[in-house]
Fold these 4 entries.
Entry 1:
Amino acid sequence: MQYTQKVIDHFKNPHNQGEIKDADAIGQAGNPVCGDVMKIYLKVENNKIADVKFETLGCAAAIAVSSSLTDLVKGKSLDEALAVTKDQIVNYLGGLPPVKIHCSMLGVEALHEAIKEYKTKSNK
Ligand code: FES
């Protein structure tokens, strides 16, 4: 299996890895194919993603996807972040091996869960 250099870079030096202790929302997604899990923490200010971090127990592709996703959505409005697709993440990484495409779903799902939690909380 061949990973692009960008996938390898993000896997070896992931951006925004860790926990946000006072996060405004947390989203989690699990991959039924492999059992891997990803958690996304959000800090939201003025409806924009002020900070985002991830914790992923998963394969190299899942870590690279998490890292790229945080780069792609930081500073974006919640609606702009919701519009980011798994294909955009895969393109950003210069592609993923076909057997690893499912790993890109985790990021989008965890992010959507976190934004959903934030919207539900802030509508109360
Ligand atoms: Fe589980 Fe990639 S093999 S997320």
Entry 2:
Amino acid sequence: MRVPIVAGNWKMNKTVAEARDLVAEMIPFLRDVQGVKTVFCPPSPALLPVSAMLQGTDIGLGAQNMHWEEKGAFTGELAPAMVAEFCQYVILGHSERRMYFGETDETVNRKVRAAQAHDLIPIVCVGETLDENESGRTSEVVSRQLSAGLQDVDPASASRIVIAYEPIWAIGTGRAATGPDANRVVADVIRPALEKLFGAQTAQAIRVLYGGSVKAGNAAEFFAQPDIDGALVGGASLKADEFVKIVYVARAEVLKGGA
Ligand code: 13P
């Protein structure tokens, strides 16, 4: 049984004061939700104060990026040990990092291995552009991102890795993939690629989230899919009521025997 994850990627939004307000609003509704793992991924300055607020709850905390080196002259970067001080999760290889900050499958791979070495659960993002999608290259692109991004990863802890399938054309556009289409990519491309890397048992244990314009109104469509194990939510994670609703939709699907 894969416990679904609903993670909020706040991206570059919310000051510490705003982050505290948002978290305070959501905690009463999310602190004891069973059967679904909720994760907040605020910007770096909010990690320390939010981690203190989450003490005693079941809500997880994640960073949005980190460097792979242990420490040193890497101005502006966060070391794995700094992230691991407060977080259990770290988003790696988000398409915005790949697009605007030059991340490659190779740097994602270094980061995944560094996360494993520090007992952090990496949420590894993959997904194709609109152009790649329309020219029928989704499978090729996503397979490559996985085989290169996860190469030489310790197979013993590979089942802890989380994958987020985020088609780039669906991010922040209001144009989500359909549930069945997203499920098809997960079932036909992502799990087979994971099986090739880690074997069938581990491939079945790894959680694969969908991301891209997920809202309370369309979340059930994704959570009802057999191969989708939750969501990585951007814009809708910045509104307390909307994000809480998404977690509750995931919970309702678990009770129905879906997600
Ligand atoms: P939106 O939910 O705003 O489309 O963003 C998705 C995303 O990039 C989450 O990582």
Entry 3:
Amino acid sequence: MMSKLWGGRFKKATSPIVDEFNASISFDARLWRYDIEQSIAHASMLGKCGIIPLAESEKIIQGLRDLKNDIEAGKVEFDTSAEDIHMNIEKLLHERIGDVAGMLQTARSRNDQVATDVRMYVKAQIKEIDSLIREAQSAFIKVAESNIDTIMPGYTHLQHAQPVMLAHHILAYVWMLQRDRERLADCFKRTDVLPLGSAALAGTSFPIDREYTAKMLGFSRISENSMDAVAERDFAVEFLCALSILAMHMSRFAEEVVIWNTSEFGFIELDDSVATGSSLMPQKKNPDVAELMRAKTGRVYGDLMALLTVLKGLPLTYNKDLQEDKERLFDASDTIVICLKVLIEFVGHLKFNTTRMAAGLEGDFSTATDIADYLVTRGVPFRTAHEITGKLVRYCLEQGKTLGNLTLEEMRRFSDKFEGSNLTWDAWSSVEKRNIPGATAPCRLREQLEAAKKALAADLF
Ligand code: ARG
């Protein structure tokens, strides 16, 4: 039997299946770097405050640094019987520097230790994800810029609604991603609170300096309530919420790619580097990547639901249930990171069939609103104008005509407010007329592009 760090009050060994069930080292090993960094700060604080002798504190720190180098060099194997990463590190340190290692856990419990490691991990992930989102945003902005003159049908209910500029459509994703960044930055503020020093739940009798460790570890605040600090995982839930919304945004884009890539739409052709083939049908070029991106959303939502369910009904303070937070966090974060990398690659290779997109607007009635708006400018109430235009559309459908080739005489059969020679109802004048802030007109698009670039350039934390 391996002796347990908590073995003092036990007479018998735990059974192997219980050890296996209880252990988290198989997944929390990836927190090793944060655990060592945290322990170095803690040991340094203990020495500085005279809680352990300075010489011992230095020995511990040196031991931890050596251990870090050896882990980095791949020279260390974690022991699956040592339960979790915290006890593995402590055990490895003991093997190296002997009983002095035992001083490290003064004024610290695994409860505040694990809460600290997880917060350090989430902070690092938020930073990595933020920089990937920015890359994705700038890829979208490039697509918008290089297709600045492309017009296309805008959809509601997946039916042609009104003409829009492709760049306007693409920039919509930049703003979704911007809100994702803001949500993550907001989550960062609440994650950036140090639980260390809360010990098991009640705080500690040793005169520790929590501000000192906070500073060393780059936390901007310390927690206000030791019980809350070891028990809560709201920051992790918030992180998973933000990731879920981000996954949902990526999934909506992925769905558009799937639709645009159909032979019915033919708006895009996938670059070979981001497409896949069929093992049976030689002609196929499939959007597997977009489909997977769409599907991965389910994993991330699942991670969020799982963690919310773990936390629901947990009495204060620490309960072993909390060990279940890590795999959910790792899975969601890993999923989002790979999805973002794929998205960046994918958007970087987007090629539009702009002729086909513009052709979609021919005779599609998507400028009908412009007719109604025109009548309104001639003093007709909008509801009446809507009715008149509806009748005009029906007339066209019955006569096999389009709005573009109606004669003035035909229009005047529906309202004598139609006047003048240039009533053409074409898609270009439709977009050009929509020139209020936030609308699709090309002159507004240039403003929007500038605003998007500015948003992207700003550091949120
Ligand atoms: N592996 C544990 C976790 O992930 C560490 C904390 C254990 N604390 C305890 N009192 N059993 O939550």
Entry 4:
Amino acid sequence: MELSQRAKRLKSSVTLAASAKAKALIAAGEDIVSLTVGEPDFATPTVIQEAAIKAITSGVASYYTVTAGIPELKAAIIASIERDYGFKTHSENIIVTDGAKFALYSLFQVLLDSKDEVIIPTPYWVSYGEHVTMAEGVPVFVKATQANDFKVTVEQLDKVRTAKTKALILNSPSNPTGSIYTKTELEQIGNWAVDNDILIVSDDIYGKLVYNGAVFTPLASISEAIRKQTIIINGVSKAYAMTGWRIGYAVADDVRIISAMTKIASQSTSNPVAVSQYAAVEALNGNQAIVEEMRQAFEERLNVIYPLVAEIPGFKLSKPQGAFYLFPDVTEAMKLKGFTDINDFTNAILTEAKVALVTGAGFGADENIRLSYAADLATLKKAVKRLKAFMEA
Ligand code: PMP
Ligand code: GLU
């Protein structure tokens, strides 16, 4: 038996692979501190758990739901978009998916023909490129430098634009860099996309996790023309500590996109897990103080951990404004320890310092390494202590 060419080309998610490796080592008795996967360490808030339990015991969660999401959840998404983005969307413009990841996967399946191009700023979240190639599209990477705060400019985008360019992915706040585009920057990029009829996939999943006075401006809130050109990707995983529940969604002005994504879901997943949808209704409709509490905890961790990581010999970074990652440039650190390859360096940190991190290679950045600070302060401090000892040895 031969696997398909498609299967052979496909790469695993490096974040999930790094996390699985760390979990396996810990299960085997190794003393590893894992700052790999990007997920809140908090349990899902109790009110959300209770809504899920009620959905189970009342029986409503026993059955298939409509493919694009239960009306109650769509209503909750409409209300949250109105609150956070300032415009009113409609049920037919929304699809609820099995995590934001499946929204992105199915979106590119319905947008791209073979060889269509999608511009992806680097460093990028690990799955974007694979989502595009799984749809036979071509990812076109544009390097956002640390000197420019890991943000791309219209000039850079225009250089790589071709007749085949169908979409651009923007992720602000960014995984892995934590950078946030300002309103002016978004306006420039949005207008460029409108002028050139390029769709913008705006991955807003970290929109509620911004720190120290930084402001998240949703791209789709900037103007009517930009809103129409934008497909919003969002979900409850990060802001509500619900990664395991697998609820995300897409909002598009063009209902044909949503209908086509719904066809894919109807032939693949049928519907997002019923109980999770009821839980997500409570997350979006309930008291938003739970989000603020977790946001404050992440902010405190960032403020404690950032200066400590900046002191590690050879680690160079600027302070992120959002999400929950540090993404230091470790070029100097690698030199100091005699490494030339970021994967080997990441591996040495795992085996010698006993700290599991994610190689920047998976994010298209061979000089960087990612630490997730979605862990308690004691764990974070322990990790930094080990990293420092490793670098000073
Ligand atoms: N986009 C980004 C930038 C992410 O970091 C994640 C986290 N996995 C996702 C999308 C997908 O989130 P989920 O599938 O858990 O909703
Ligand atoms: N987005 C998270 C991360 O980057 C979760 C893992 C994943 O979905 O790949 O670590």
